[in-house]
Amino acid sequence: MDVNCVKHETGKHLSGTMIAEKLNISRAAVSQILKRSIKKIYLSLKNSNKEYSTIQIISGMAKLFNIKTESEYKKFFRLLPENVKGEINAAAKDNGYKRN
Length: 100
What we know:
Blueprint: H1 16-23, H2 27-48, H3 54-64, H4 70-79, H5 82-94
Helix pairs in contact: 1-2, 2-3
């Protein structure tokens, strides 16, 4: 499955603004579509892989979406449902991770 379909001809990912311009919709609409899509993918993976933790599912999604840089991870994190963000933050805190 090629999930990197939203790329500019240069091979770089398109920003939400660029996608909005290409589709003639608002940037907010692009953001909401992405958030709903990420949530659906997450829930589908969670329901079909009950043995995996939230962190494992999100890590798998990040690999699927070819997320590599810290900046890309931050953008991806912002698209996650609030309850998933909470689970990730709680797991990180339980494992001694502290935000700067």
